[in-house]
Every structure is written in structure tokens, then in C-alpha cells.
Design a protein that fits this description.
- Strands 1, 2, 3, 4, 5, 14, 15 and 16 form an eight-stranded mixed β-sheet that branches. Strands 6-7-8-9 form a four-stranded parallel β-sheet.
- A hairpin with a 2-residue loop joins β15 and β16.
- The protein has two domains: 112 residues, Urease, subunit C, domain 1, CATH 2.30.40; 309 residues, TIM Barrel.
- It has 19 helices and 16 strands.
- With 432 residues, the chain is of the alpha/beta class.
- Helices cover 38% and strands 21% of the residues.
- The protein binds zinc ion.
- Zinc ion binds next to loops.
């Protein structure tokens, strides 16, 4: 079996000391060795050696995105002053005829260029469902479920969703994404959680993203509640019952939606008790700070999540609410926010690096199947190389976290070369 060795002046993996002049050996889609180049090459003296220019890391995990909206970047390039104005701009473009398949494929290609090797991808229109499969990205395609009232659901909802889920091409693994607490009736969310367990699939839910949503769940009031009543959704239990008097997190918990096989997106409007409940339930949160800023929302409480020890991951959300699909750019935003929110501990670089790699793999449950998001012998060969100007591994980590590049110079998924900067295109082979 052919062995390929990628040699880089800095090799970084969460939870292990950085390596100077390090190398990773890849064989049959897995990592066969990690260490100093001299040691790795003595173990595999016949390996093909690729001299990489930059810092080699595990592939990044984008723990929340919607690749099908890549073609709607005009919405994400504008500034909005809240969820209502953003949704208005989104809904002007969403109904227009569009090639969702091509749009999602373009998004998958951008992810690979950004050094991302696994995604939590939300599929809303079935034509977009093949993008992750065809790109070779690792991760989960979550079928988005939204708009169901309880009465409609009783007329065949489970059968419909089961068929939609079954139509998604695999790999990747498939999952369910109950969209949000305001777009599905209470009993539908409860039943989806039960069905997800029965069908053995994970769930991914937008939660605690806007103040709108908070008022909606507590009292069934506010702009969002009025908009939904006007749109004929007044029979949703939260609207007819004037809310449940709690925030989004306890509400989801009361429906059985918070389990270790669920991860949330956003998690902005959460207090100390909510964060404790998420830890108790083993639920990770994918933070998407640039999307929150584009929409005009508050920033996530990253410092509190770090201090209290919540499991966090990083997502870009889609280009309809973010300037790019670069995970490093969201990591840089989280770094700035953490410092602004008073997080002064020296482990910030290491923890945000962990969130973008192993933390993302854990959020998606990928690490329950295979070691993923770390560089260790036997792990999936999901890796990336990023250009850096720093000369020491410690400085390279700081540079990646605070000002990481938009584009990788190399992206390898499961041992397959999926991206290399064109200048070195001549070295491309089908497998590495
Ligand atoms: Zn989203």
C-alpha cells in the first residue's frame, strides 16, 4: 500500500504539543504516523514525500452551514439590523428559480478550498442533497424539517419525512434538522426527537439565535409571533397557548430534543442555567459569530461558554448570512469576542483551535465512529495545510486563530486529495 508523507515546518493537533519540522504519513485513508519528519521517514523510508509550505493541521469542521444558499451571497454581503430585515431580504431571493444543486456544489468546493474536511450541512431543497456526497466531504447532511403544524403532521408527516431523508444520497451520514422552535409545532418537535432516536440519526437545530425567538417561546408575543399569526400559523401551540414561560433551551429539553446525539446552532440567548443544561445533556453548540453580526444580532457569549466548559464548535452558516465559508474567519471573530468579553486565559488559541477541529468532530458525533479532527495514528486522514508567515509552531497557532487564511494550500479528506493551490497543480494525483 502506497504511503504518502506530508512534511511541514509546523504540525499542529489539538491537545498535543506542536511539532517543528513535523510530518504526517497517510496510508489507505488513515494516518499511519505523526511526528518529527526524521522519525516518520525512518518508519516509512519508501514513502512519497510532499514538502508542504505552511502549518499542517487536522481538517477544519464546519459545524453549521447551508451550502445550497451559496448562490444567495448578495443577502450575506449586505448589512441587516435584525432577524426581521434579514429574513425579508432572504425571502425576496429564496423563491426565485435557482439551480440548488449547482449552488450547493459551489459551496462544497469553497469549503474544500477553505481547508474544511467535514460539514454539518442543512439541506432544505432535495436538489441540493447530493453536494456533500459528490464533493467527497465528510460529515452529515441534515434534512431540514419546517412548517409543520401538528394537525398536518398527523396526516402523514412521519412518512413524508422518512421518505425525504431516505432520498438523500450517502455517504455522508444523514440526519434530521428540525429548523427551529418557531417553525414547527410543539408536538412535531417532540415527535421528531423520538423518530430520530428510533431511526438512529442525529439532530441539528437552530436555537436561541434571536431575541424574537426568545419572546416567542416565553409568551407567544413579539414581531415573530405576529408575523406567524398573520401567515396562518396561529394554531402552533406556542402561539395559541401564549408561550411556555421558559427560554428556548428548557423548552427543547422538555420535548426530549436535547440529547448527546443533537447539536445546536448559534446559542446566543442562553443564560447560566441554559449552559449548564446543555452540558448536562452533552449537547454541543456551533457558534457562527459572523453570521450573527451580518444579521444584526447580539454576539454569542463565547467567554462564558469557555469559562463554564461547554462543548463548542464553529460554523460559518451560509453565504446568505456570512461573507465567506472560511472557518478561520469565524475563529478570528470568536477570538476577538472572547477578549472583549473578558476571557484573558492563555489557553484561548488552543481552545478555539480545538473547537474548529476536534470540537466540531465531536459536535457531529464523528468521533464516536472514528478518531476525527485530530492527528493521531489510526485517525481518518482528514488534514489541511495553511500558509503562515510565523516561524515557530506556537506563533503559527496564534496566527491561524487570530488571522487565519481564507484558503488552504492543501486539503485531504479520508486520504483523498480534494484541493491543492493551483501553483502546485502539477503534483496533483487522484489519491495521496
Ligand atoms: Zn443556519
Amino acid at each position: 500500500m502506497t504511503v504518502t508523507v506530508h512534511r511541514a515546518r509546523a504540525v499542529l493537533s489539538p491537545g498535543t504539543p506542536p511539532l517543528v519540522d513535523g510530518a504526517v504519513a497517510v496510508r489507505d485513508g488513515r494516518i499511519a504516523a505523526v511526528g518529527r519528519f526524521d522519525d516518520v521517514i525512518s518508519e516509512f523510508p519508501d514513502a512519497a514525500v510532499h514538502e508542504e509550505d505552511g502549518a499542517l493541521t487536522p481538517g477544519l469542521v464546519n459545524a453549521h452551514t447551508h451550502l445550497q444558499y451559496t448562490d444567495m451571497a448578495a443577502v450575506g454581503r449586505a448589512a441587516h439590523d435584525g432577524f426581521e430585515s434579514w429574513m425579508g431580504a432572504f425571502m425576496e431571493l429564496y423563491p426565485l428559480p435557482r439551480d440548488w444543486s449547482a449552488s450547493a456544489a459551489a459551496g462544497a468546493a469553497l469549503c474544500l478550498r477553505a481547508g474544511t474536511t467535514a460539514v454539518a450541512e442543512i439541506v432544505t431543497d432535495a436538489e441540493a442533497g447530493s453536494a456533500v456526497h459528490e464533493s467527497g466531504l465528510h460529515g452529515i447532511a441534515f434534512w431540514e424539517v419546517l412548517g409543520w403544524t401538528e394537525s398536518a403532521w398527523r396526516l402523514g408527516g412521519p412518512e413524508t419525512v422518512r421518505a425525504q431523508l431516505g432520498a438523500l444520497p450517502t455517504p455522508p451520514t444523514v440526519g434530521l434538522s428540525p429548523h427551529a422552535i418557531y417553525s414547527l409545532d410543539t408536538e412535531v418537535i417532540r415527535e421528531l426527537s423520538r423518530l430520530a432516536a428510533e431511526w438512529g440519526v442525529r439532530q441539528h437545530i437552530h436555537a436561541a439565535e434571536s431575541a424574537w425567538e426568545d419572546a416567542y417561546v416565553r409568551t407567544g408575543t413579539g414581531d415573530l409571533a405576529e408575523r406567524w399569526r398573520a401567515n396562518g400559523r396561529g394554531e402552533f401551540a406556542l402561539l395559541s397557548g401564549n408561550g411556555v414561560g421558559t427560554g428556548v433551551i428548557p423548552y427543547l429539553d422538555s420535548l426530549g430534543a436535547l440529547t448527546p446525539t443533537t447539536h445546536l446552532a448559534h446559542g446566543i440567548y442562553v443564560d447560566t442555567d441554559d449552559r449548564r443544561l446543555l452540558r448536562d445533556r452533552g449537547v454541543s453548540v456551533a457558534l457562527c459569530p459572523r453570521s450573527n453580526a451580518v444579521i444584526g444580532l447580539d454576539p454569542p457569549p463565547i467567554a462564558a461558554y469557555l469559562r463554564e466548559g461547554n462543548a463548542i464548535a464553529v460554523g460559518t452558516d451560509s453565504l446568505s448570512s456570512s461573507p465567506s465559508l472560511s472557518i478561520w474567519h469565524d475563529v478570528a471573530a470568536l477570538h476577538r469576542l472572547a477578549r472583549e468579553q473578558g476571557y484573558a486565559a492563555p489557553d484561548l488559541h488552543a481552545r478555539l483551535f480545538h473547537a474548529a477541529t476536534a470540537g466540531g468532530a465531536h459536535a457531529l458525533g464523528l468521533d464516536a465512529v472514528d478518531p476525527t479532527g485530530i492527528l493521531q495514528v489510526g485517525a481518518r486522514a482528514d488534514l489541511a495545510v495553511f500558509p503562515v508567515s510565523a516561524t515557530t509552531p506556537e506563533d503559527a497557532l496564534a496566527e491561524l486563530v487570530e488571522n487565519g487564511p481564507a484558503e488552504a494550500s492543501l486539503t485531504v479528506v479520508g486520504g483523498h486529495l480534494r484541493w491543492r493551490t493551483p501553483a502546485r497543480e502539477e503534483r496533483m494525483t487522484a489519491n495521496v
